[in-house]
Amino acid sequence: MSTINPLAERFGDAADAYERGRPSYPPDAVAAIVEFLGLGAGRRVLDLGAGTGKLTRLLVPSGASVIAVEPVEGMRRHLAAAVPAAEILDGTAEALPLANGAVAGAVVAQAFHWFDQARAVSELHRVIEPGGGLAIIHNKRDESVPWVARLTDLLEASTGAESPVEQFGWREKLDRLAHFELVEQLDLAHVHRLTRDGVIDRVTSVSTVAALDPSARAALVDRVRDLLDTDGDTAGRDVIEFPYRTLGRLLRRRSPIPGAQGLVVAVNLNAGGVPKPPVDRARIGRLGLEGDGHHNPDVHGGEHAAVCLYAQEAIERVRADGHQAFPGAYGENLTLLGIDWATLRAGDRLAIGGDAGPLLELTQYSTPCDTQARWFTGGRIGRISHAAYPQDARFYARVLREGAVAPGDEVRVIQRTT
């Protein structure tokens, strides 16, 4: 199932300019990533959304085997030429062409904002081995420098929007998911030295610029050339110093051993239908999560089925069988990690977020229905049926104690039936 943003697909048209005009990454950032992920001989690392290989080529000297996944054909052509040592695969962040636990760690450079975060984070958790790491990094134009701020104004005036990196709210969406724990943040100064034509390549490699009609794009290029000719920091220079801040997050995969204690990795709700997207937090009342709804309330909801629960481990097993699975896909409200699902049964109680948090009591398995068929190869919804796969089925629960829930909250099985 392809979920490539239409704007991101325009990189195929701008791949040449991207390769010429986009910056690499500073040595200190690369060294931090290599150390954090423990890269070296015998280790495998995923470079997701690898583009033309700006970061990929810097990972090869670590000695690790590099797997570069890139969905845009035009970018892959440059990638293959630039990094012949890498294994290059066609694929998306939302459906990675890799087995569970296939890599020691993953990097995402200049691409995370394009992803459907709920799907991509779930997939990264699936393919990264327990305890492995994830590095998210991007170069941001340093708009504290006046000529760069003017350049941004020209870009936004021509495209009608700010950069997709800022526009899509990916940081806020990432914070709604607790599959990974933040360990360190990077913020480094970086300078890319370019010719005047290189700056033009930098501009035309922007996805929103590539999407302009030719006349509008040409007009923008003329305005950028005028800026370069008139600004005191760029006029008359053969080599222009283009300043950036290189920003990064180093995150560790949460990998609890399944048992009686785990955590909430996603809180999912909407007015009805599937998938239910993640939210920052919610209050669980007697009849379920406030703000949540069902298209068929006679079937779903009520006191005995107020909250629907699912396991991240089950999601990853279902994905390994070739079906689509991610937090909220099947209508669950809480996606949990670290609870031994196979041992749960009706009557067990789950305490969330400490003694004052919600207390749930499992009531029954949730039977799959045709609304979930879209996610399954051949519509085989029986893959999450309790009759055949109890360890991969969803559970309904009643609410014994109301309260708030958020990603990262602890979950404990505090009472088991005999």
Would you spell out the secondary-structure blueprint of this structure?
Layout: H1 6-9, H2 15-21, H3 27-37, E1 44-48, H4 56-59, E2 65-69, H5 73-82, E3 87-89, E4 103-109, H6 117-127, E5 128-141, H7 146-159, H8 164-167, H9 170-174, E6 180-194, H10 196-204, H11 207-210, H12 214-230, E7 240-253, E8 260-268, E9 278-279, E10 282-285, E11 288-289, E12 307-311, H13 312-320, E13 334-339, E14 349-352, E15 359-366, E16 394-401, E17 403-405, E18 410-415
Helix pairs in contact: 2-10, 6-13, 7-12, 10-12
Q: What do you see in this structure?
A:
The chain is α+β, with helices and mostly antiparallel strands and 418 residues long. The chain folds into 2 domains: 248 residues, Vaccinia Virus protein VP39 (Rossmann fold), CATH 3.40.50; 156 residues, Beta Barrel (M1 Pyruvate Kinase, Domain 3). The longest helix is centred in the middle third of the chain and has 17 residues. The protein is built from 13 helices and 18 strands. 26% of the residues lie in helices and 29% in strands. The mean pLDDT is 94. A hairpin with a 6-residue loop joins strand 14 and strand 15. The strands form 3 sheets. A 7-stranded mixed beta sheet has the order 3-2-1-4-5-7-6, sandwiched between helices.
